[in-house]
Design goal:
The complex is a heterodimer of chains A (108) and B (578). Chain A is mostly helical. Chain A has one domain. Chain A contains 3 helices and no strands. Chain A is rod-shaped and about 130 Å long. Among the domains of chain B are: 38 residues, no CATH class; 352 residues, DD-peptidase/beta-lactamase superfamily (Beta-lactamase), CATH 3.40.710.10. The radius of gyration of chain B is 35 Å and the shape is elongated. Chain B contains 18 helices and 22 strands. In chain B, α12 packs across α16. In chain B, strands 2, 3, 4, 5, 9, 17 and 18 form a 7-stranded mixed β-sheet that branches. Chain B has a 5-stranded antiparallel β-sheet with strand order 11-10-22-21-20, with helices on both faces. Chain B has a two-stranded antiparallel sheet with strand order 1-8. Chain B has 578 residues and is of the alpha+beta class. Classes of the chains: A mainly alpha (108), B alpha+beta (578). Chains A and B meet through α2 of A and β3, β5 and α9 of B.
Amino acid sequence: MSVLWQQTTHGVLKRKEKMQRFSAQLLLGIVLVTTALTGIYLAVVASNVHTARRLWAMEYQMSNVLRDNQALITEVARLSSIPVLQERSVALGYQPAESIDYLYLGEP
Amino acid sequence: MLRGPDARLRLITVLLIAALLLVLGQLVRLQILDHRHYQNEAEALVRRQYTLPEAPWGVIMDRNGALLVGNVPVYNVGAEITMITDTVMAASVLAPLLNRPEEELLATITLSEGVQHLIWRPLANRVPPETVQKLRALNWPWITLSPTWERYYAEGALACHTLGFVNADGLGYGVQTFLLRVLRGESVTRVGSVSVDTRPMPNELVGGNLTPYPGTNLRLTLDRTMQAFVEGALDQAIVEYNAAGGVILVMNPQTGEILAVASRPHYEPHRFPEYAQDGRDVLFRDPAVSMAYEPGSVFKAIVVAAALDSGRVDANWSYNDAGRLEYGGVFIRNSNGVAYGTQGLQGIMDHSLNVGTAHLSTRVLGADVFYKYMRDFGFGQTTGIELAGEAAGIVHLPTDWDWSDSYLATNSFGQGIAVTPLQMAMAISAIANDGVMMQPRIVAERHYPDGRIVPVPPHALGQPISAETARAVTEIMVRSVDTFGKVAQVNGYRIAGKSGTAQIPTTGGYHPDDVVASYVGFGPAPNPQVVILVNLDRPDVPADMRWGMHTAAPVFQKVMTRVLTLMGVPPSELRAGH
């Protein structure tokens, strides 16, 4: 009787195969879990970097918008300044109120 | 020789494990053992001190929200001159853009021989965004652009003394200097990772915002429209009476709010460096707040109020006016030298009798009581208004080394005592506000960058006289206007007022001709809404027309008429409900 036959008939090969299958599954599991964790880690890091980059860009955008806003505020102030308003009022025919009649409304 | 697949498999496994161990070993070395070394090397490459772009200063608005001082975005332009390949061409292109002579610019950007390291030089400051767009279009990598701000005065020179300015050293005038720490935006300098153009890297966000907080905005008590009218009226008066300068101050006696304050001579605040360079920096001082003058007869209203409030005289009190009074070695005379006979408090105010107020201060009140009232009315002390460079004025006291007995007599008609127009208006406002003296204030609200709006509440400095005294003095002043001071009357309104013509002190005496003509009043009585003070400095008109009643009073009348209209105060009869 060959050794192989003996191992087969005594179930030795079956146990060995079971062990190997288990080891392979374990290793595969570890590899999968590690890959998943690494993937998640990389995704989180990439997302962080992306978000930081966006925040950074937004900060500069905000800074530029703030500057544009200040420029617009001063432009509006220039256009509504007293000399400009006076000029426009005169052009429209307005005059300073000299004589004002107040109407007294008694308590109802 | 390897026999069988098992053996070869084992060999491959061993080799793979060995390779993996090698990689792991290197990882351990790089990440753990030599971590500090490589981190230092990396940081040395990117870690620099950087300053965040300058935050805008807080803007300043009038009481209705109209912008008075804002910020214009500008840039400081520089050049890494070692990177320039064609300096002649660069200078010819940049010269018209930066408004600099081409030769001068060429000298700036030309590198000295033998210099190898990077050299940066400033080319122009406060360059407008339109020019910066053209510079960017050139796409020259050696041009550096640093964003910054320039103050913008929306109304030009309007309220220049009140608004003031701040120079590069943080010194200056007006509300901007007084509230510099509030107005100035956050300045942030950190050490961290920067990009090649010295901007902070994204990871620097961990250390905080990369856009610093702007300064706090201020809403003032000034009314822009009223201010413009008052300044126009003052300019007209200065031309009409050929005066050297003047002040018009409009104040709400119930809250202490300064509604308008015009001072001449004045300046354009955005051009302050030119004035300083030309030696005209005396223009920066606000005559309304920083310069004391002898108030003259307008001071008599204060003395009459003090006498009445002390209880030592009443409305029926009288004295015999002989036209002169001797006290402390000096003779006090009425301005026209006339003896008015039996006079009371009303007569003192109507005829502006120097002898009458000297009688009150020397024979009725005495030094202790007189100067107690001067202190209570705030003379000789700053008011605490939010403006830089406020003067305290000069009040001589009996305990002073340079005291002279005659001061007690001369102070009673506003000589030998120096006050600021603001102090004078504040003291008169106590009479207008039932004896309660409100602290003058120029800031109504602070608008913080986080959105909070904090109002500055009115603050009473004290009550120098009782409400009854204040009402009695108001009536005396109203009657005085209605009988002897009609030029200050405003149709439909009961106005209280007092004129003054103060000689100007010089070394060893008083100038024979120069005077400060003034008028101070309030209305409409009762429950006055506004106090107005008009000062004209050295009006150059015929001597008989230099009096405050002839020069300052018509200006007061004109300003009061318009101010009551602008404030929407109905005539006295309507207010009384008739």
